[in-house]
Structure formats: C-alpha cells, structure tokens
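Alkyl hydroperoxide reductase AhpD: structure tokens wanted.
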Amino acid sequence: MTRLTALNPEEVSGKTKDLFNAVQEKLGVIPNMMRTMGNSPAVLEGYLNLSGALSHGKLSAKTGELIALAVSESNSCDYCLAAHTFIGEKLVKADPAVLKAARSGNSADAKTEAILQLAKTLISKNGLVNDEDVNKAKNAGISDAEIAETVAHTALNVLTNYFNNLANTEIDFPAVAELQN
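Answer:
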C-alpha cells in the first residue's frame, strides 16, 4: 500500500496543476511518481528542473538511463527500475541486455562502464570517494564535466529512489525481475 497520495491531475490547482500540465504535454502521461511528488510543488519542480538541465549536458540520454538503473539497483528501488527499464527500451532504444548489465554497473563500452562504476562507488561510499576512485574514472577517459554530471545523475536518482521507496509509489510501468546473482 502506498504511503503518500498520488494526486489526481483533475483535482489539483496552482503550481501543481501547472507542473502536471507541463509533464502531460511532454510525456503524454503523468507518472505516479510525479503525481505523488506533486504533493510538494517545490519537490516536483526541483526534480523536473534538475532532470531538464541534465538533458542538455555532456552525458547522453542513454548514459543517463544506464546510471539511473545502476543507482536504482543499488538502492533497491523497484519503481525506478521499472520506469528506467521502460524508458531505456522505448525512448532511448537501448538493448534490454545493455539495460540489465547496467544494473550491476557493467557495460561492453569501457567508458560507459567506468561511469556506471563511478555512480555505484558514489552510492556505496555515500559520496566519500577517494583519489583512486576519481583517477580511475579519469584514466577511462571521463572528463571533469562528465564526472560532475555523473554525480548529478546519481544524486537525482537517489532523490527519486528514496522518494519512491518512502512513498511506496504504485508502479505504473511494466515490472522488472530481480537480478539473479
């Protein structure tokens, strides 16, 4: 059972209504996570603004989705795993095997794998990485801008993971099976 209410878009007003309208226009739907974030227009607007800003960064949309999957797996967020698997397959057209590998921080592309490993390291060390961690990323060809964006993507997904885990948001995307170790 959900712990926070997903608002009905037909029953909201003010800033929440404006944000819901923008989401509806862009996505054609208002996912349950955003409907739930709408309880605080500041939270929803902050999420949308950071997500929007990162969409214009150095890292591709595909890489952003792969980071989301790596972080969501680390944080056991079933909602985000379902959402980002769906987005990865349908919107960025990533191969399902690539998406599944990203959950463990793996990629056939060495630079992408280094980015995913950096994201996983940020999570496992609560952001307290060391020189070796950063140098490993740089030695893999990741620029300072890409490192900064990896941190931002990781933080954005920590926000959504924690939010959805706390809210127990009803999953409105196809469910994703647990990884088999």
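The chain has two domains: 12-54, 61-167. The mean pLDDT is 97.

Cheers.
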